[in-house]
Every structure is written in structure tokens, then in C-alpha cells.
Design a protein that fits this description.
alpha+beta, two-stranded antiparallel ribbon, globular, 22% helix, 2 helices, six-stranded antiparallel beta sheet, 127 residues
């Protein structure tokens, strides 16, 4: 029996395109990756950036936000998702076409890059 966390996606966000702004998402699923020991957000952001830079990712960051946030595409699985660092956790935000494999692969790389255990919490928001 495996003790690996599930990256099952029970709810996907719905895109809205309001007339006065770009795109908004309603509902969806977020995975919070919590390290077994304390990391400050700067150290977590550095770990995430190291993973993204090593590939197989194409990514871009959002400037002028109070937290590090990247839009990420796994070039091997074609999965696109957002990665945020906030309050001592790494958060994977599911987008409408995100699949579990890309999330799992990112988690595996994060787990392998740090000498700590990780807990995964899933949060699902209704539409």
C-alpha cells in the first residue's frame, strides 16, 4: 500500500471573463504542500525556482504581488498550473485543464530537493 498523497482533482475552476478585467477563476482545487520542518517563504521560493529552472518547465512569475507566484507548464505532461509560496507552504492551484500527473511530478521534485517530509492538504472550493 502506497503512502504517497493523492493528487486527485475533484473540482476544476470555471473561467470567467469580466468586461472590466482579464480572467477570473471560480471554484477549483488547491494542494498545499507543507514541509515537515519550518522554512521561511524566501527559502521555499528559492526551492521552487530551482525546480522550475532545472526543468522540464516553462514558467513566468507575476510581479508586484505580496507573494511569489508562477504560472507553470510541465513540458513533458503539458500540464499547466499555478505555484504560489505563502505562509510557509507551497501551493499548487489547479487550472481548468490541469491533470494530476503534472502536480505529482512537481511534488516529487520538491520532496527530492529538500531533506524533509512533506504533507499534502487538498482544499476544494465549490462553484
Amino acid at each position: 500500500m502506497s503512502t504517497d498523497p493523492s493528487f486527485d482533482i475533484p473540482a476544476r475552476p470555471q473561467r470567467r471573463f469580466p468586461h472590466d478585467s482579464g480572467v477570473e477563476y471560480e471554484g477549483g482545487t488547491e494542494f498545499r504542500l507543507l514541509p515537515g520542518r519550518s522554512f521561511d517563504d524566501g527559502a521555499l521560493a528559492t526551492s521552487v525556482l530551482d525546480i522550475l529552472t532545472a526543468g522540464p518547465y516553462r514558467y513566468g512569475d507575476f510581479h508586484d504581488l505580496p507573494m511569489p507566484l508562477w504560472l507553470v507548464r510541465d513540458e513533458e505532461t503539458a500540464d499547466v498550473f499555478r505555484v504560489a509560496v505563502r505562509d510557509g507552504s507551497v501551493r499548487l492551484h489547479v487550472l481548468p485543464t490541469t491533470e494530476s500527473e503534472g502536480l505529482r511530478r512537481f511534488y516529487d521534485r520538491l520532496r527530492d530537493s529538500n531533506d524533509t517530509a512533506w504533507t499534502v492538504e487538498r482544499r476544494v472550493d465549490g462553484h
